[in-house]
């Protein structure tokens, strides 16, 4: 049984609101959690095969130029060395981007950034390979490199597709009762997933099998096949568990291609694990940004104009530009509008999607500007936002599919105790600390991506879910089991979930906050199809059918699955985005509140507490959803206060290329964080009526902190991260 469903119309209702099994939304523990804490969940670098050998990548030591020669003599003479792969033309210059189905990037012709992988040394052990990697002699002809973003900003080229304009913003600024026109800057950042990029490659005949730490397996398979000149059905990628991605594993990275080449040359399994430094130097980063935000408002606080223009950087010929104005375009009204990005060409590693590309840094600027406007107009920041919620998309004139932003602002304000805040900056002191409170809205676009799953109802009253969807630590295993359990009237323990293998039906993958809703819908649809068959078998209409405790019921009549299912029942379902994508603005919303202390003498900033109220349609599991939002808010602390990738503008190196020196918030930096979800259903999003939350928690969180810092000490810093040197 195969079905395809296209999301062309809002759906009237979801079966999940009628099945009454009390499984969906429940905060149950991760079903794969025990495997993980016992070390029995195997990650890509943990697979071992007979005869397996190890490869270590060698990166360029210049940021721009060409290779004039590679001398392997010294490296090959070292003990244990088996091969040196130097046909780097086949290597990727860059990891691919998610969702791309064409070859992700050109092979290597020139060196485009420091650390770009140009060779792989393979040896019997990792240590021997690492030793020999250091003995590979590479001669370069350096070229002039473009390394200084700020110095080169005047050379930024506009990205045409991002330019949008309506009305006369300059006029609106001149006529405004109050206006803000300022520049915010955010630094280069690294996704910093816990698990480094790793691939274990082996060939079975002419088929390549890669155990790879990736987020979106079906497009990753396409990219790997393209890079190696193979048909996609000759490539299989397996990623049962992935230790975080945050964008850096959307596309394949160089170690997979190199491992595949070496495995073919040696006819042995080859494992290549990037070092942390290689992850930083050679995968992806978030671009630094320079953002000009303009707000024009009347004395009543209503916006008459809004502008958000951004300069980012990327490698030569790369088109991705951090879409910092993504949510600015629909969050607030104002007739005159201008948005646009431009790109500086830079010899730094690819800049690409990372943790809420767009909103994560764009809302630092927008929500900072809104805070400044609130102060200029002497209007409460919560009230200012509520006054500016547009009834429809301000440029496209589309309705919102659902938007409980005002409710989130009200609920969050009340839960946080916002009414007690002193709006005058530098007015609350406790001992050596200035105390301040700030808030910001949260918004993150919602998407549906084509996704397939197969569900098999066995003769043993168990169900099996198979899809190449990944679980990157987010809870996919658990929510898919909950959806099937709810739909089939089985306990969660009776659902087996098999993910992360391109041998299964192709899923959306994990990215862009679309994974749960897209993959979840495919499971829902397959289960719905199975329900129809069960209904037929007991002579019920689908509406009359009740499934619970492994029984199919119609009124008082009941039959166990064991009688109804004598051969396994299999349904494969695919969901595709349709017209609701074009006909509605879809986003999840929320409100962030933060309290900080700023040390009177040192300028040290401590976050004291955070609160987030969110509305994202149906919440599929209140525990995993809450964990995701907390994780996002923790990264909000990083964005506001600690994270900054430092590029050496003379050598092109990354100065802080590891987790010791690239400062993510750690336990000592993270206070109590409260998360509340408001009840909501989104009928235009998908048949689950759910929206994505993966990246909602980070969107706006850092702005609430920065606004709290201003409220604490009266210093407005627009250059992120807010390190203490900027406060004294
Ligand atoms: Mo996300 S930055 O689409 O993994």
From TrEMBL:
<dbReference type="Pfam" id="PF20256">
    <property type="entry name" value="MoCoBD_2"/>
</dbReference>
<dbReference type="GO" id="GO:0005506">
    <property type="term" value="F:iron ion binding"/>
</dbReference>
<dbReference type="InterPro" id="IPR036856">
    <property type="entry name" value="Ald_Oxase/Xan_DH_a/b_sf"/>
</dbReference>
<dbReference type="InterPro" id="IPR008274">
    <property type="entry name" value="AldOxase/xan_DH_MoCoBD1"/>
</dbReference>
<dbReference type="InterPro" id="IPR037165">
    <property type="entry name" value="AldOxase/xan_DH_Mopterin-bd_sf"/>
</dbReference>
<dbReference type="Pfam" id="PF01315">
    <property type="entry name" value="Ald_Xan_dh_C"/>
</dbReference>
<dbReference type="Pfam" id="PF02738">
    <property type="entry name" value="MoCoBD_1"/>
</dbReference>
<protein>
    <submittedName>
        <fullName>Xanthine dehydrogenase family protein molybdopterin-binding subunit</fullName>
    </submittedName>
</protein>
<dbReference type="InterPro" id="IPR000674">
    <property type="entry name" value="Ald_Oxase/Xan_DH_a/b"/>
</dbReference>
<dbReference type="InterPro" id="IPR016208">
    <property type="entry name" value="Ald_Oxase/xanthine_DH-like"/>
</dbReference>
<dbReference type="GO" id="GO:0016491">
    <property type="term" value="F:oxidoreductase activity"/>
</dbReference>
<feature type="domain" description="Aldehyde oxidase/xanthine dehydrogenase a/b hammerhead">
    <location>
        <begin position="38"/>
        <end position="144"/>
    </location>
</feature>
<dbReference type="InterPro" id="IPR046867">
    <property type="entry name" value="AldOxase/xan_DH_MoCoBD2"/>
</dbReference>
């Amino acid at each position: 049984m195969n079905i395809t469903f296209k999301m062309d119309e809002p759906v009237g209702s979801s079966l999940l609101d009628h099945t009454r099994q009390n499984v969906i939304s429940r905060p149950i523990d991760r079903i794969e959690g025990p495997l993980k804490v016992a070390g029995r969940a195997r990650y890509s670098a943990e697979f071992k095969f007979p005869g397996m050998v190890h490869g270590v990548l060698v990166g360029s030591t210049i940021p721009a130029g060409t290779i004039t020669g590679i001398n392997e003599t010294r490296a090959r003479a070292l003990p244990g060395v088996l091969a040196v792969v130097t046909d780097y033309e086949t290597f990727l210059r860059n990891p691919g981007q998610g969702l791309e189905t064409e070859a992700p990037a050109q092979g290597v012709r020139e060196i485009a950034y420091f650390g770009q992988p140009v060779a792989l040394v393979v040896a019997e052990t990792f240590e021997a390979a690492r030793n020999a990697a250091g003995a590979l002699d590479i001669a370069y002809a350096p070229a002039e490199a473009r390394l200084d973003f700020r110095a080169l900003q005047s050379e930024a080229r506009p990205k045409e597709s991002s330019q949008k304009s309506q009305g006369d913003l300059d006029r609106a600024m001149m006529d405004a009762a109050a206006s803000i026109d300022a520049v915010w800057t955010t630094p280069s950042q690294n996704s910093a997933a816990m698990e480094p990029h790793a691939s274990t490659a082996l060939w079975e005949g002419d088929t390549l099998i890669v155990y790879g730490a990736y987020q979106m397996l079906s497009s990753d398979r396409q990219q790997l096949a393209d890079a190696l000149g193979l048909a996609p059905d000759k490539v299989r990628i397996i990623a049962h568990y992935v230790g975080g991605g945050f964008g850096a594993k959307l596309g394949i990275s160089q170690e997979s291609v190199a491992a595949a080449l070496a495995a073919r040359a040696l006819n042995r399994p080859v494992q290549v694990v990037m070092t942390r430094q290689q992850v930083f130097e050679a995968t992806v980063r978030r671009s630094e940004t320079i953002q000009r935000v303009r707000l024009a408002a009347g004395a009543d606080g209503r916006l008459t104009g809004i502008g958000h223009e951004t300069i980012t950087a990327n490698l030569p010929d790369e088109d991705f530009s951090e879409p910092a104005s993504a949510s600015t375009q629909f969050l607030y009204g104002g007739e005159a509008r201008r948005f646009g990005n431009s790109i500086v060409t830079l010899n730094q590693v690819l800049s690409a999607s990372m943790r809420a590309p767009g909103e994560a840094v764009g809302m630092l600027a927008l929500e900072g500007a809104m805070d400044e406007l609130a102060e200029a107009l002497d209007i409460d920041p919560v009230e200012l936002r509520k006054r500016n919620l547009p009834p429809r998309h301000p440029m496209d004139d589309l309705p919102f599919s659902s938007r409980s932003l005002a409710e989130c602002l009200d609920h969050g304000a009340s839960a946080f105790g916002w009414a007690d805040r002193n709006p005058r900056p530098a007015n609350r002191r406790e001992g050596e600390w200035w105390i301040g409170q700030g808030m910001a809205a949260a918004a993150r676009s919602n998407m549906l991506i084509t996704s397939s799953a197969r569900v098999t109802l066995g003769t043993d009253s168990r169900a099996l879910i198979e899809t190449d969807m990944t679980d990157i630590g987010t809870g996919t295993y658990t929510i898919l089991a909950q959806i099937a359990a709810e739909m089939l009237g089985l306990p969660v323990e009776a659902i087996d979930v098999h993910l992360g293998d391109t041998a299964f039906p192709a899923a959306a993958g994990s990215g862009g906050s679309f994974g749960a809703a897209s993959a979840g819908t495919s499971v829902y649809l397959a289960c719905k199809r199975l329900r129809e068959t069960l209904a037929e078998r007991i002579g019920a209409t689908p509406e009359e059918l009740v499934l619970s405790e492994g029984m199919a019921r119609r009124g008082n009549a009941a039959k166990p699955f064991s009688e109804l299912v004598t051969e396994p029942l299999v349904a494969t379902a695919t969901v595709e985005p349709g017209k609701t994508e074009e006909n509605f603005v879809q986003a999840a919303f929320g409100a962030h509140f933060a309290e900080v202390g700023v040390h009177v003498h040192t300028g040290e900033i401590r976050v004291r507490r955070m609160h987030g109220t969110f509305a994202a349609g149906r919440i599929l599991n209140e525990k995993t959803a809450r964990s995701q939002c907390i994780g996002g808010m923790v990264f909000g602390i990083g964005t506001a206060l600690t994270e900054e990738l430092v590029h050496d503008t003379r050598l092109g190196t990354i100065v802080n290329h590891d987790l010791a020196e690239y400062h993510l918030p750690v336990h000592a930096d993270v206070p109590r964080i409260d998360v509340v979800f408001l009840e909501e259903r989104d009928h235009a999003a998908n048949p689950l009526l759910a929206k994505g939350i993966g990246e909602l928690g980070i969107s706006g969180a850092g702005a609430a902190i920065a606004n709290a810092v201003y409220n604490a000490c009266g210093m407005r810093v627009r250059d992120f991260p807010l390190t203490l040197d900027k406060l004294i």
